[in-house]
Specification:
Two copies of one chain form a homodimer.
Chain A: H1 13-18, E1 27-29, E2 36-38, E3 42-45, H2 46-73, H3 78-83, E4 101-105, E5 117-120, H4 122-128, H5 130-137, H6 141-145, E6 147-150, H7 155-167, H8 174-186, H9 190-202, H10 209-218, H11 222-234, H12 236-239, H13 243-251, H14 253-278
Parallel strand pairs in A: 4-6
Antiparallel strand pairs in A: 1-2, 4-5
Helix pairs in contact in A: 4-5, 7-8, 8-9, 9-11, 10-11, 13-14
Region (Disordered) (chains A, B): 1-24
InterPro entries (chains A, B): BTB/POZ_dom, SKP1/BTB/POZ_sf
Protein name (chains A, B): BTB domain-containing protein
């Protein structure tokens, strides 16, 4: 592929004549943005440009292939059967979708929501979560009864959770990301956890930093923890004035200690070269 | 993003001095391959090079994300349960994997193979194939009996077919690609059909061109059909000497006519400009 094929110059000589005044700065025209550039702004030669374009095309083709694969592997959500109107008059009874288990949001407050079961396939749950796998393959209570009770979760979050197990898709806002991350951690659905963490890191700001930090600590969300801790230690001067800070000192002072330890460790690391020079 | 930031030139002036003899050809050094290039080999400026690199990095990240999604959505194949040794002593009976249907390769010759059932989940079959969907959701014989008989297929091909429905993966050789394409066409599994067609097109050569052409015709494989027809019409001088050609004339002369029609149409199209000039 490499090895310079010297192509015939497409630029006319009159073109170079007009640039004669700045001939010592040596200008060329960029094949991409069409602007003239000088020696110090040189990017690539034509051959490397073409190779890079080919690589980009190959990557785009790979993306298309992977997207098609995702579309193929996405599972029909069991909700599709309930939501969509019957597509054919022949199919008179609503299609059951062959579900063989239901999940129930068993919150303490017995709202109407908590009575709505979320249908699912054991095979899908087992395929996505090692916790469901252990639960359903080992003849535990849930396997026998065909009902999995999940506490401390809303019906909406549970439904979004099950939907993610089928489709790898979730429509997130911050609350939903928190709820789904808790479920993902509990049932060891790593892909969903990473998805929620990514979303929460993107939504991180000074206002929600301490809350995010405490949440990340509680639910073992390492990326959120790192990002929030970094944001907090960047703004130590404002920290003690925050209401959430006072609350955290009251509620979980150990976490506050960890903030100070991280801050201290950063300071020591920054000062390290000076420190070592003072030692004998 | 655009708009030239003129960076300080990193090349020393002594460098340009050594090139003074060819100052009218104007040379630069490629940031990628490090070779010197002239005006006619100019690719991009530095800024466009950096933008292209960023794009490439973004595409690569997208590919990583999609690969993780595919890995998440890939379904446990029902064979995994049968092949792998029991992972835990507690789980004494082999895990059923909650399969609720079996597929059987019901070939005419009652070999031992044809007796081996391939277990599967109705939900997976329904999710991947509109034909299985109609069959299983409409209380047809197969749904009631829990057994789907598939004729004219080997056990290995059937197993590979079911495995693809779970994983979007198949280990292909030419024979397997032919077998799976037939099943993919029959059960309308487009993703698998495209996969097989791509493989068969990549394996196309003069020796298998007529066989591929006839096969593609029979099973509605458009990409294989186009590619094989193009290969055949590129080599019309050798065509009539081929044994497969004689066989096709015997067996299905209509297909041979289509080869000649395609060849003629190609000739007419190539000659079109001359043709039109002779008309009044």
């Amino acid at each position: 592929m490499r090895g310079h094929r010297r192509q015939r110059c497409e630029l006319s000589q009159t073109d170079s004549g007009s640039d004669s005044e700045e001939s010592d700065t040596e200008t060329m025209r960029c094949i991409s943005c069409k602007e003239v550039y000088g020696r110090c702004d040189a990017g690539t030669c034509k051959e490397c440009y073409e190779e890079a374009s080919e690589t980009e095309d190959e990557l785009k083709r790979e993306i298309e292939d992977l997207k098609a694969k995702v579309a193929f592997l996405r599972f029909c959500s069991p909700f599709d059967h309930h939501v969509s109107p019957p597509s054919s008059a022949i199919r008179s009874p609503p299609a059951p979708g062959f579900t063989d288990v239901v999940l129930v949001a068993a919150s303490d407050a017995a709202s109407i929501d908590s009575l709505l079961p979320v249908p699912a396939h054991k095979a899908v749950l087992v395929s996505r979560s090692p916790v469901f796998k252990a639960m359903l393959e080992n003849e535990m209570e849930e396997s026998r009864s065909g009902t999995i009770k999940i506490t401390d979760v809303s019906y909406d979050a549970l439904r979004a959770f099950v939907n993610y197990l089928y489709t790898a898709e979730a429509c997130l806002d911050e609350q939903m990301a928190y709820d789904l991350l808790v479920l993902a951690e509990k049932y060891q659905v790593k892909h969903l956890k990473a998805h929620c963490e990514k979303f929460l890191v993107s939504k991180l700001n000074w206002d929600n930093s301490i809350m995010s930090y405490a949440f990340a600590h509680q639910h073992n969300a390492k990326h959120v923890l790192e990002a929030s801790l970094s944001l907090i230690t960047d703004n130590m001067d404002k920290l003690t004035k925050k209401e959430e800070y006072m609350e955290l000192v009251e509620k979980d002072p150990r976490l506050v200690v960890e903030i100070y330890e991280a801050y201290l460790s950063r300071q020591v690391n920054t000062a390290a070269p000076k420190d070592s020079s003072t030692k004998p």
